[in-house]
Design brief:
The complex is a heterodimer. By secondary structure, chain A is α+β, with helices and mostly antiparallel strands. Chain A has 2 helices and 4 strands, in the order βαββαβ. Chain A has one domain: Alpha-Beta Plaits (2-Layer Sandwich). Chain A has a two-stranded antiparallel sheet. A two-stranded antiparallel sheet of chain A has the order 2-3. In chain A, strand 2 and strand 3 form a beta hairpin. The radius of gyration of chain A is 11 Å and the shape is globular. The model of chain A has no long low-confidence stretch (mean pLDDT about 95). By secondary structure, chain B is α/β, with parallel strands linked by helices. Chain B has one domain: 3-Layer(aba) Sandwich (Rossmann fold), CATH 3.40.50.970. In chain B, the strands form 2 sheets. Chain B has an 8-stranded mixed β-sheet, sandwiched between helices. A two-stranded antiparallel ribbon of chain B has the order 5-6. The longest helix of chain B is centred in the N-terminal third of the chain and has 16 residues. The radius of gyration of chain B is 18 Å and the shape is globular. Chain B starts with 20 loop residues before the first helix and ends with a helix. The mean pLDDT of chain B is about 100. The structure holds thiamine diphosphate (TPP) and iron/sulfur cluster (3 copies). The site of one iron/sulfur cluster (SF4) has 13 residues of chain A, from helix 2.
C-alpha cells in the first residue's frame, strides 16, 4: 500500500475552482466558507495524488 | 525537488482565472521535468503572447517571452546557436495555428529538436474570447455571436502532415498520461508537438454554455478516447488521445553541424 501522505495547502494560491474537490475519487476535499479547499475526511484519502496534479494553482502538495 | 522549486514564487499566485487549464499544464510539465531529472539551467522556455504564453514568466528556467505567433522563430535561432540546451515552446492555439501557423508547419518540416506544447482552449483567451482556428464550426465566440462558420484545424493531422516526428494529444483531465507524454516529447530528438485540450472557463466555457472548469474537464473525460478505442468506431465524433507519431528522422541542428564540418574542410 502507498504511504499515507498529508496535504499541505497554500490558501493564498488556492482560487477555489473546485477541480480537486470534484475529481477526488474518495470525496476527501471540500471548499470552506471562504471558498478555499479544506481536507474534510483525511482518513478516506488514498494518497493517489490526483488533487495535487490537477490543481491549476499548485496549491496542494502531498507530503 | 518539490514542484514549487521550479516556480518563480514571487510571481505567484499566477494571473490565470480560477480553474484555467493553463495551470494544470504548468503543474504537470514541472512534474515531467522533475521525473527526467533535468537541470533548470539546461532548459530554455520560449513563449509568444497569450494567457498560455505567460507560463514562461512563472517558471524558473531560462525564459524568453517574445511576440505573438513567433515563439518558434525565436526558439529556432536559439536552438541553432545552443543546440545542447533543451528548448520547450508552450503556445496557445491562436499563437500556434493562427498568426504562428507558418512557423509551426516549417519547424515541423525541418524536424528541429524543439518540444512544442499547444494549450488548445479553442479560443483567444487573452484578448477577450475571439474565435481561433480551433474553435470549430458552430462554436460561439465574441466574434461569432451567431455561431462560427469556420472549420477547425486538427492539430494532430496538421503536425503529422508537416513532418513532426513526435505527435501526441492529451487533456487536462488525463494528468497521468499528460506527464508521460511530456516526458516522451521532451526527450524525443526532433520536433515534437503535444496538443493538450485545455479549458478556458472564462470565455470558451461561458460563451458555449458548457459551464465552468469542472464541466469542461468532464467534457474532455467523456468526449475523448485512447487511440484505437472501439467506442470511436461507434461514435466517430469522439476525439482520440495518445501518441500518434514517434519516429526518427534527421534532425535539423545535427544536419547543420554536418554542413559546418563539410564547409570547414574547404
Ligand atoms: C502581432 C500581434 N497580433 C495580435 C495580438 C493580440 N493578441 C494577443 S494574444 C492573442 C491571441 C491569444 O489566443 P491564444 O494564442 O489562443 O492564447 P490564449 O490567450 O487563449 O492562451 C492576440 C490576437 C498581439 N499581441 N500581437
Ligand atoms: S484545484 Fe487547487 S485552486 Fe482549485 S480548489 Fe482545489 S486547491 Fe484550490
Ligand atoms: S490524494 Fe487522492 S484521495 Fe487523497 S484527497 Fe487527493 S485526490 Fe483525494
Ligand atoms: S481568459 Fe481563459 S485562457 Fe485566459 S486565464 Fe482566463 S480561463 Fe485561462
Amino acid at each position: 500500500m502507498k504511504k499515507k501522505k498529508e496535504h499541505r495547502i497554500n490558501r493564498e494560491w488556492c482560487k477555489g475552482c473546485g477541480i480537486c474537490v470534484e475529481f477526488c475519487p474518495k470525496e476527501v476535499l471540500v471548499l470552506d466558507e471562504e471558498g478555499k479547499v479544506k481536507v474534510e475526511h483525511p482518513d478516506e484519502c488514498i494518497s493517489c495524488g490526483l488533487c495535487e496534479m490537477r490543481c491549476p494553482d499548485i496549491a496542494i502538495e502531498l507530503v | 525537488m518539490a514542484v514549487r522549486d521550479y516556480l518563480r514564487e514571487r510571481f505567484m499566485p499566477h494571473i490565470w482565472c480560477p480553474g484555467c487549464g493553463n495551470g494544470i499544464v504548468m503543474n504537470n510539465l514541472i512534474r515531467a521535468i522533475e521525473e527526467l531529472g533535468w537541470n533548470k539551467n539546461d532548459i530554455v522556455m520560449v513563449t509568444g503572447i497569450g494567457c498560455s504564453a505567460r507560463i514562461s514568466g512563472y517558471l524558473d528556467f531560462h525564459t524568453l517571452h517574445t511576440i505573438h505567433g513567433r515563439a518558434l522563430a525565436f526558439a529556432t535561432g536559439l536552438k541553432l546557436a545552443r543546440p545542447e540546451l533543451n528548448v520547450i515552446v508552450p503556445m496557445g492555439d491562436g499563437d500556434a495555428t493562427a498568426i504562428g501557423g507558418n512557423h509551426l508547419i516549417h519547424a515541423a518540416r525541418r524536424n528541429i529538436d524543439i518540444a512544442a506544447i499547444i494549450m488548445n482552449n479553442q479560443i483567444y483567451g487573452m484578448t477577450g474570447g475571439q474565435y481561433s482556428p480551433l474553435s470549430g464550426y458552430g462554436a460561439k465566440a465574441t466574434t461569432a455571436p451567431y455561431g462560427n462558420i469556420d472549420q477547425a484545424f486538427d492539430i494532430v493531422e496538421l503536425a503529422k502532415a508537416s513532418g513532426a516526428t513526435f505527435v501526441a494529444r492529451t487533456t487536462t483531465y488525463h494528468v497521468k498520461s499528460m506527464i508521460e507524454i511530456f516526458e516522451k516529447a521532451l526527450t524525443h530528438k526532433g520536433f515534437s508537438v503535444v496538443e493538450v485540450l485545455t479549458q478556458c472557463p472564462t470565455y470558451y466555457g461561458r460563451k458555449n454554455k458548457i459551464g465552468d472548469a469542472v464541466d469542461l474537464m468532464n467534457y474532455f473525460k467523456d468526449r475523448t478516447v485512447p487511440i484505437g478505442s472501439k467506442k470511436k468506431e461507434q461514435d466517430p465524433s469522439l476525439i482520440e488521445r495518445g501518441v500518434f507519431v514517434d519516429e526518427q528522422k534527421p534532425e535539423y541542428c545535427s544536419e547543420y553541424a554536418k554542413v559546418i564540418e563539410r564547409a570547414s574542410k574547404g
